[in-house]
Amino acid sequence: MSARRPTRRTHRPGADQRMSARFQELDWRQTPLGELTLRRRCDPSSGKEIHEIKLNDEFLMSSMFTVAEVELARLALAEVAQEPLHVVVGGLGLGYTAHSVLEHPNIGSLLVVDALNEVIEWHRQGLIPGGKALAADRRCRLVHGDFFAMLRSGQGFDPATPGRLFDAIIVDIDHSPRHLLHPSNADFYQPEGLRRLAGLLHPGGVFALWSNDPPDDEFTAAMSSIFTEVRTEVVSFPNPLQNRDSGNTVYLAKLG
Fold it and tell me: Does 193 have pLDDT greater than 50?
């Protein structure tokens, strides 16, 4: 994502009351990246309440599909033996990965970095289920910043402690190493970007990445040039919109 801070909310007449039989718009912001929307709807098949974040016409996150976001945290932390664990999550979204990290019994601290301050505000205001609890957890800090720019800066992810090392860095921002939210993110998926990230991990630390695409051999090879242990896990889950199972990829890499 761009490091530019989105503008404050521009109110659309009637936006808070915008309703249909199926969804309610909870908030809308005009940002340099486009229109950012948080909405709540009722799934007609299950009757469950679904929260969604959209950027323009593109879905960034839906609470209908969270299995892989939860597994991303679980798989990453299962690889780390240290305790207490100190973790970074790049990408807040609806908070499922961050909540899963905090459910681990050995978590000492969690930094969640997101380029869109509006998304952080939605959590703090309670517009997203579990958001207030996440923001209030003493182990957790929500950091407004561009994850990729912070990595390039050499200062790392903790503004209070430049260069701080972590036990796990978990990333769910772009759709995949090839399908990016912003072209400037591309260098992260190259060996030099991965080398910068490895420099912020303790020995034995883990990097984990969510992807909406099948495993990418080229990216796996780039990871293998930096990390000692690399593997992928395909996480399957029911997709009621397509009446079949779908899958996301979790990349896992360990620093020797």
Answer: yes
Band of the pLDDT at 240, cuts 50, 70, 90?
low
Q: Which own/partner pairs from 202-205 qualify as long-range (CB within 8 Å, at least 24 positions apart)?
A: 202/82, 202/165, 202/166, 202/167, 202/255, 203/255, 203/256, 204/80, 204/81, 204/82, 204/167, 204/254, 204/255, 204/256, 205/80, 205/165, 205/166, 205/167, 205/168, 205/169, 205/254, 205/255
Which residue ranges form the domains of the chain, and what is each CATH number? 67-254 (3.40.50.150)
Specify the pTM.
Answer: 0.89
Query: In the predicted model, is pLDDT for residue 166 greater than 60?
Result: yes
